[in-house]
UniProtKB/TrEMBL annotation, chain B:
It is a multi-pass membrane protein. It comes from Parasulfuritortus cantonensis. Residues 17-246 form the ABC transmembrane type-2 domain. It holds the Pfam family ABC2_membrane. It comes from the Bacteria. It is found in: Cell inner membrane; Membrane. GO terms for cellular component: ATP-binding cassette (ABC) transporter complex. This is Transport permease protein. Keywords: Cell membrane, Hydrolase, Membrane, Transmembrane, Transmembrane helix, Transport.
Amino acid sequence: MHALRGVDLDIAEGEFFALLGPNGAGKTTLISLLAGLARPSAGSAAVMGHDVVRDYRLARRSLGVVPQELVYDAFFTVREMLRFQSGYYGLHRNDAWIDELLENLSLADKADAYTRTLSGGMKRRLLVAQALVHKPPVIVLDEPTAGVDVELRQSLWAFIRRLNREGHTILLTTHYLEEAEELCERVAMLKEGRIVALDRTVNLLRREDEQRLELVLSSTLLPENLDARVVGHDGNRFVLALPDYAELEGILAELRRNGIRIERMQLRQADLEEVFIKLVGQGA
Amino acid sequence: MSGFGTLFRKEIIRFGKVAMQTVLAPVLTALLYLLIFSHVLAAHVEVYPGVGYTAFLMPGLIMMSILQNAFANSSSSLIQSKQSGSIVFILLPPLAHFEFFSAYLLAAIVRGIVVGAGVLVVGLFFADLNLARPLWVVAFALLASAAFGALGIMAGIWADKYDHLAGVQNFIIMPLTFLSGVFYSIHSLPAFWQGMSHYNPVFYMIDGFRYGFHGQSDVSPWLSLAAVTPVTLLLGGLALRLIQTGYKLRH
């Protein structure tokens, strides 16, 4: 069993990079290799030029990882956790930065709360804070916004963007493709341990440069001769490919002929989700 | 060694926060043994001339508490962090293998000795205890707690669930300690079991420790030292090796 096969990936300093793929594609395995939580059976990986096996201490010092699992140590408070985490990196007077982290992650009023009393979203943000205590040049976020509500998600991303502007390299995995589309300059898509696409986000989107026709219909069935165009379908909501605006007229006529009423209609560009589904296959 | 200090401190605070369970409970357990056994046997048994049974029993109970608690500290801390997943917080930072090892080991030694000292202090209300050779007391307390702390590290890394740890505790640690002369001199055993006891490293830990208090023991303290030291080094080396290889900690 190999979770990853022939992955050759270079992320430049200062990049905001997304790693996408369905469950089991190997995203977390790749991150575990970088973080030293797993060891490669073949091949190598390096963080800021430090080999993760040979120079493990320098590699780990350069890396801050927000793990996917919502883990916490029930024995300690938020501030205790952050002080311990600082100490593991040799930072013994780190309270100014810890306070700044708590402030930016909306945890300031929870500094003295025991971690077990935090909500899921707060635990997630504490994990982010723990990953950042040593101001690592490379920050890895494995599904960081799962379970975090929309408003806090925005402030979290604002903070991560600021870190990116200040020169931190960000590597992100997410299920929310719109986040990757909005935030990341480059994207790699993984499928069954292989990279199926690796390009600048704008290029990936341009690859799918045809228009999308989004329809909400009075019927959950389309006329048969429109089936070939369907790229997305959910109940009575359909997304059709539209390579040429001129074809719009024919589609509308076909619907009318079958007595199907249009409740809502929208024309738009393909988004990353559609590129993603096309490249990694349905069921992603 | 900057990370070592923090990890060591964290481990001390961890058991300090649940001192009721990690310090007071084992002291009470030892006290109950002391009360019951000394009540039943004090009138009948004099193991060494001039040493009452309660005074004879105390070093054995203290050492038993040291061993069990040193083991419990490293093993339960590790399995708890493994089960909750919070072990990543110490796997991600750049802690050297030796820092990881020595922080857990030293915290186990401290817990063992704190509980042992607690048993000693409480026991002094029930029996007068000499400190004939205090250096031997210190040497055996350190060597024995280090050996069982290292054993606890190995068990904590190996175990996938609490049941595995309970197995080690009940099927290895308990028989080794109970059959080592905590409650009796091995000279009172039939020849076969007397011979068997000489293969039990815990026998030497207790016998050497007892010598430090009473100046009398079943075998020479030098022999005990020669038996215990390599055991401690071996267990420590194995535990460090497990951490270096990443066994069950890094895939």
